[in-house]
Amino acid sequence: MTNHSYYCCTEPTCTRAPLTQGSDGLTCPNGHFIPYAPGTDVPVFACEPEGANEYSQENAAEVHDNALRWVFNTFQTDEEGLRERLIARMGLKKGQRVLITGAGAGNDLPYLVRALSGRGDIYAQDIAKEMLLAGVSRYRTELAASGVGLHFSISDATNLPFADGFFDAAYHFGGINLFPDIAMGISEMNRVVKEGGKVVIGDEGLAPWLVNTELGRMLINNNSLYACSAPLAALPATARDVKLSWELCNCFYVIEFQASTEPLPVNIDVPHLGKRGGTIRSRYFGRLEGVDPALRDRIYEEAERRGMSRVAFLESALRASLDKD
Predict the structure, then answer these.
(1) Is 286 helix (H, G, I), strand (E, B) or coil?
(2) Residue limits of the Methyltransferase type domain (predicted)?
(3) CA 185 to chain centroid
């Protein structure tokens, strides 16, 4: 039985409390219990209802495999080359810890194992129990001798059971368009990746120059997900070094960025030179009520006559007026 001490409780009141392992599941200090899927040591934090969609039916992995073959044949793309290119964007190093959300039946796992060069840990997550357990069945034994630890959880990608900054990198390809809250899914990946670690995300979404072409309209008619735009607006405001590109004949977007929870290093207090003066902060937070335009013009003229910026003159005049009181 593997050690599950790296998992955290996802209940809002528990603030990611560490879980302890039992014979049939995980328990948090506040008494919440996360059972294992029957016959496994895979914890079930959250799960789609059986039969809710094509990913939660009994033969989900086979259905998905057929869909993947269609994709690679349609876009005439080598699967191995594509997966290696996408995973290479994370810049993984031997011994690192990586998260894959929406892992499905684990098709990326052999490539992630290879990228870790025989040492490290992979955490595969999906909310579709049938898909993830197919991945466990396919790859846990097959990759057991790789030297890389494989850990699986059935959980919600918008509420991940991991502590802040737990991973060196995170990866998702195929499925984020269907997240109920895409921004929260990306935010969670950013949260659990350490400062400066890479996050790579991709899914169906035509490049803008293809959307209104006949080919684009045909693809969207075939599958409405091709009309999705790359969710750049859903990235955290703290994201660094953001890159957007497309794969599979420019029909699947790929976003990569460096994770961060630190504010952007923008100094909003640098004074402007020139007639207006002020700073980004004072211009934004220090806006005054409207004044008579004629009076405004007189103030501007007086500021210029005194060789002062408008902001500096207004601030000095207001302080002088307040000091008199």
Answers:
(1) coil
(2) 102-201
(3) 6
Q: Which amino acid is at 192?
A: V
The range of the structural domain enclosing residue 1 comes to 1-35
pLDDT in tens, 80-130: 999 999 999 999 999 999 999 999 999 999 999 999 999 999 999 999 999
Query: Percent of the chain beyond pLDDT 90?
Result: 81
Count Cβ neighbours within 10 Å for each residue of 261-288 and write b for 16 or more, e otherwise: eeeeeeeeeeeeeeeebbbeebeeeeee
SS3 category, 176: helix
Q: What is the DSSP letter of 119?
A: -
Decide if 72 is inside a domain. Answer: yes
φ, ψ for residue 181 (rounded to 5)? Answer: -140, 95
Q: How far apart are CA 54 and CA 68, in angstroms?
A: 14
Whether 86 and 13 share a structural domain: no
Helix, strand or coil, per DSSP, at residue 158? coil
Cα distance between residue 188 and residue 97, in whole Å: 16
| CATH number reported for the structural domain that contains residue 206 in this entry | 3.40.50.150
What is the value of pTM for the model shown? 0.90
Overall domain count for the chain: 3
167 with 316, same domain?
no
Q: What is the mean pLDDT of residues 143-148?
A: 91
Residue 179 φ then ψ, to 5°: -60, 140
* Rounded Cα–Cα distance for residues 214 and 188 (Å): 37
Angle at 323 between CA 319 and CA 325, to 5 degrees: 125
Residue among 40, 157, 43 at smallest CA distance from 104: 157
Which amino acid, one-letter code, is at 269?
A: D
Residues 14 and 32: beta-carbon distance below 8 Å: yes
